[in-house]
Structures are given as structure tokens and as C-alpha cells.
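We emphasize that the prediction below concerns an isolated chain of 376 residues; any contacts that depend on oligomerization or on bound cofactors are therefore not represented. The input was used exactly as deposited, without trimming of termini.
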Amino acid sequence: MFNPSSRRIRLQGLETMKYQAPLEGLRVVEFLGLGPAPFGCMMLADLGAEVLTLRRPGSELPALVRNRSTLEVDLKDADTLRLVREMIEAADVLVEGFRPGVMERLGLGPADLSAANERLVYARMTGWGQSGPLASTAGHDINYIALSGALHSATRQGGTPMPPANLLGDFGGGALYLVTAILSAVYERDRTGRGTVLDIGILDGTTYLTSMLHEYRSTGRWSDEPGTNRLDTGAPYYDVYPCADGKFVAIGALEDPFFAVLLEVLGLEAELADGRHDPASWPSLRERIAAAVLTRTRDEWAELAGPTDACLTPVLGLAEAPDHPQVRDRDILAADGRGGWTPRLPIGYRDDATSAHDLLRSWVAAGDRAGRSVTS
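Result of the prediction step, given as a C-alpha cell string:
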């Protein structure tokens, strides 16, 4: 079932209308991997796509495999491989995350499949991309963001680069790039009648995310020395500070009006705003802000700053975030029944999945020859 966001319904006045999942009817065959491809297919499934996930016999399900129909397949077996080809003939999209050349060796490369399904959008999700000297080598999020320059930007002055878990590469530069490319290709196919092959690299997507930094650097507004810029903790009004209880608050008062409110909330004199954009003033300004923040606990600051434009927020852990009033209001976390939480898309989400057998039967009902063969 697809559950539209109650907020979206209220805003659009759709209370009495039946809501259809945005990607209802889009058929996706996923060769199960790790990281960005499962996240991207999770997004497609959450938005209503019919995702059939193929995995090795006996393999454990990794994270992010929800709302999907899963099927164990032995790709070394000739009969199974024939059935997999027929599934793909009935699909709109194929997603795979193997190293370059693996699908070709299985006889499942783009050239092998395009004749039987010229409308197929074939998405290849890797770390380095399909070409280049590193294409066939191993890597993980931290390696891809390191080479893109993004990891370097997450460094305090004199400190060590700090990777933000695997959020930036795997999911920001990988999965979101994958979904955007797939939807663009499906839209293009509606005009041309033909599918395409998508070469999606985490390195590529993460590099694209650094567009603003490259533009700033080219115009003299970004220094190669980490921790000296407005947005990399160089500026004292864009940083994280410890509080009296050892917890932290995040401050992002970049604009003058917001900085003026911040000074008022912190109990600091308004004159500190004079010359605050001059990096020479940053060390002393940082000391004043740090000393002020240390006088209260994190939650006391959150209560004081909450209804203002001070751009001061508490730094919450994953266990704390669901209790924040703003997070609760947005309906973006759901209890998972195991004492934890499941994030969900604010525009709506799917909360069920058809069995692989039933899914293939539905493809048969739609008149797909491949589906009839697979489920017979």
C-alpha cells in the first residue's frame, strides 16, 4: 500500500482523492549488492515501483532491502539464467552493482539484452565507474569521496579529515545520483521509445556535489587550506560547540540578521557583529561564542534558541532525533517494531511488498511473454 504524506494531502487539498504511487507500474529488476544500489532501489520501491530483487542462494539480506520482492537465483545455472533473461525482458529498469565485466561474462550485459528489450534502462552502479585505471579495483565510500576532494573539505584546521559515516558517497553521490539518472532515462524513453545504459559512479556523483566549492574556489572564495572557509568550520558562526553538559549545539548564523539574533540569544554584545566577516577577527570571536555556549546545557540552549532565527540547534543522536517536535511533525520516522525507527520519504511511502511469485504473475496478467514463461 502506498501511503501519501498527510501533510502533502492537506497542502494540495486532496483529502477526497485516491492517491496513486508516483512510480506505480514501473518494473525494476535489481541484482542485489551493497550500499548505494540497494538504497536507490529502496527509494524506487518506496515510491511505488515494482522491484524484483535477485540474490544469491543462501545469502543474507543486507540493510535497505525493504518493500521489495526477493528471489534467490543461481546465475551459474543455465536454466535459471534463461529465466532471469526473461524477467528482464518484462522489466523497465535493470540495476546492477557488480564490477565492470561481470554481467557480460554472465551473458547479461547491455548488448546481450538490448535486442530482446530495447526499452530497457540498464543502470550500472559502481564506485569508480565503468572506465578509468581504477574501474576494476575495490573501494568504499571513504575512498571515493577522498578522490573527489569532498573528504578534504570535511577537515578542521590542523585536523584529520572526518568521513560522515557513508552518507556522502554511497547515498548522496551514489544512490541519489542513481535514482535521478534512472528517472531521467525513463522520461527520455517515453519520448524516444528506447532505453539506455547508465554508467553511475560514486566518484562522479560525489564530484558533482562539490560544484559550489569548485565555483567558489575559482572565484577566490574558497581556500585549499581546510578549516579556513566560511562553510568548513573556519568561520566561528558556522561550527559546532560543546555545552555545559558535554553535549553539542550546531551554529549556522551566516547572514547578518541571524547573527544578530544569535548574539542576543547567547547574551553577547551586538558590537561583536562588526567586522565578523574578516577572518582576522575569527579567533577572538570564536573564543567569545565558545565561552558563552559553555554556560548552559545543550537542551537549555535548544529551548532558548528554538523559536528564534539564531540558527542554533542541538546536535542529536539517532535515538534522540525521533523525539524532536519538528521531526515528529514531519512524519519522517516510523517505529520499526524492534525498538528503532525507519526513515520514510516525506512525499509518501510504500509499506508493503508483493511476493516474487505474485509479482511475476501480475506481469503475466499484463500480457508479458517473459512473465508467462517464468511463472509457468
